Amino acid sequence: MRRFLTFLAVAVIAIIPALVLRLMGWRPGPVIDTVVFGIAVLAAGFMLSWGAEAAEKRISQGLILALVALVTVLPEYAVDMYYAYQAGKAPDSNYVHYAAANMTGANRLLVGLAWPLMGILHWLRTRQRSIQMASVNVVEIGFLLVASLYAFVIVLKNRIDVFDSAVLVLLFGAYLWMTGRMPKADEALTQDDEPGPAAALSSLSPARQWVWMAGLTFVAAAVILASAEPFAESIVASGRVLGIDEFLLIQWLAPLASESPAVVIAVLFVLSGRAEGGLTTMISDKINQWTLLVGMLPLAMSVGFGGLTALPLDARQHEEFFLTAAQSLFGVALLLRLRFSLLSALALALLFAVQLVIAFIFRTEPSRAIASLTILAWVYLVLAALVFVPGAPGAWRAVVGLRAKAAKSRLDAAAKPGSGAAEAARET
After folding, report:
1. Residue 29 pLDDT
2. Contact 105, 256 (CB under 8 A)
3. CA–CA distances in Å: residue 15 to residues 45, 52, 237
4. How confident is the model at residue 425 (pLDDT cuts 50, 70, 90)?
5. Is residue 383's pLDDT more than 60?
6. d(Cα 409, Cα 418) in Å, to the nearest integer?
7. Strand pairing partners for 186?
8. Where are the alpha helices (DSSP H) in 90-137?
9. What's in the keyword line of the UniProt record (predicted)?
10. pLDDT tens profile 284-335
């Protein structure tokens, strides 16, 4: 418990400067503001991760799962919803571009950086060249595939509208419902202590655990909501002061701060010998970002606008969204065989590095950047097609096996003494 309290004290100390600036209304300068409020968002994100980590053993119902899924990505949502809301208030402003930039950056960071990190760390730790996934993981892969395919509908329309919101939010709800009904990949793993600092909470009574989880979530959520606006605005101002394209800062800096806590928890899973759990966590985060986050953008923009409206995609945003969709589809294709190899990790990381290099080289030439990244998107799609064809049969076998396992579980449950089926069998 002492270790957990030490980490908590560090997080609280990191949060205090941002709260002081927020309450006083004082802004030292864009760069300092970005650092102070960014650190606060990062620290609060860790607190959210600890609360969610402790809750995993006790939460299994659909509604609470939805709340946990929303809370764990609150840092990213808060910043992006702020940009989308401001875009609704000023539809002709750059906030429209900022909302899309933050969303595409967060999604591409997960697949291009977080996923490869899981595979590379697993290889460094065990020298095993792949992370083997369980048959139940076909659920995550299936929903991510559907979301990635639907993303191309948005690309063709050149906008994200309220209809897309309905589809994506329903898809996210269906994902939570399905995962809540599926058997766990390995029940033995759920008996182990969690790898993060919040593992100490498991030694407390259930009532005290709930108090801690609620307290961590409430405090962290309050800090994130208080810091979202100054953090989002300071990034834009910092770009102007430093002469850096604010679009690129919003696309990469904000998601790095907001995604880091969840990635660190996943890394701890890998280092504790549970690489499948770490990778599955990152896949689930990708589903959250690719469905719920994207779907909420038009809603937040509509609130700011005062009526129903859509988030338009200009030439640059169209390319960014197309590239994100193509990368997602390639990532799904690499998972179809229910294993994530070191080669797959390196391929995703290399292609992500190419994205960054192109963005840096052509940072002052938007038209050339758009053309180059569009070519890269087609490269992703070609690679996805090459991988998808041989990988699809393995995924289908996993689906069939999972259905058989679920049916067997229902039959076993019905055959237990005291069940209706068992009583009927005895009567006959």
Report:
1. 87
2. no
3. 11, 19, 21
4. very low
5. yes
6. 16
7. none
8. 95-109, 115-126
9. Membrane, Transmembrane, Transmembrane helix
10. 889 999 999 999 999 999 999 999 999 999 888 999 999 999 999 999 999 9
- C-alpha–C-alpha distance, residues 326 and 380, integer Å: 6
**Most confidently predicted of 221-225, 319-323, 364-368:** 319-323
Q: What are phi and psi of 134, to 5 degrees?
A: -85, 165
- Looking up tokens 């393995």 gives 394
In whole angstroms, what is the distance from residue 90 CA to residue 86 CA? 6
* Residues 6 or more apart whose Cβ sits within 8 Å of residue 354: 376
Report the pLDDT value the prediction gives residue 322, as an integer from 0 to 100. 97
The residues, any chain, with a CB within 8 Å of residue 342's CB and separated by 6 or more, are 119, 120, 123, 129, 130
Could you report the per-residue pLDDT of 184-201, keeping only the tens digit for each? Answer: 444 444 445 556 666 677
pLDDT at 334: 94
The vertex-48 CA angle with 44 and 49, nearest 5°, equals 115
Cβ partners under 8 Å of residue 275, min gap 6:
118, 121, 122, 126, 131, 269
Distance between CA 8 and CA 51 in Å, rounded?
11
Q: Is 300 helix (H, G, I), strand (E, B) or coil?
A: helix
Task: Tell me: pLDDT of 44 over 70.
Answer: yes
- Let me know: does 248 contact 363? Beta carbons within 8 Å: yes
Alpha-carbon torsion angle 221, 222, 223, 225, nearest 10: 80
Q: Looking at per-residue confidence, does 24 or 4 come out higher?
A: 24
Q: Which two tokens stand for residue 143?
A: 């929903």
Res. 238: pLDDT tops 70: yes
> What are 263's two structure tokens?
């990635």
The whole-angstrom separation of Cα 231 and Cα 229 is 5
| 366 vs 364: CA distance, rounded Å | 6
Domains in the chain: ranges and CATH: 2-359+367-407 (1.20.1420.30)
Residue with tokens 């809301």: 85
3-state secondary structure of 313: coil
* 8 Å CB contact between 284 and 140: yes
| pLDDT tens-digit readout, 338-350 | 899 999 999 999 9
Q: What one-letter code names the amino acid at 321?
A: F
Q: For position 71, what pLDDT does the model report?
A: 66
DSSP secondary structure code for residue 244 in this structure: -
268, 195 contact by CB (below 8 A): yes
- If you count DSSP H runs as helices and E runs as strands, how many of each does the chain have, helices first? 16, 4
Of the candidates 123, 140, 111, 107, the one whose C-alpha atom is nearest the C-alpha of residue 330 is 111
pTM score of the predicted model: 0.83
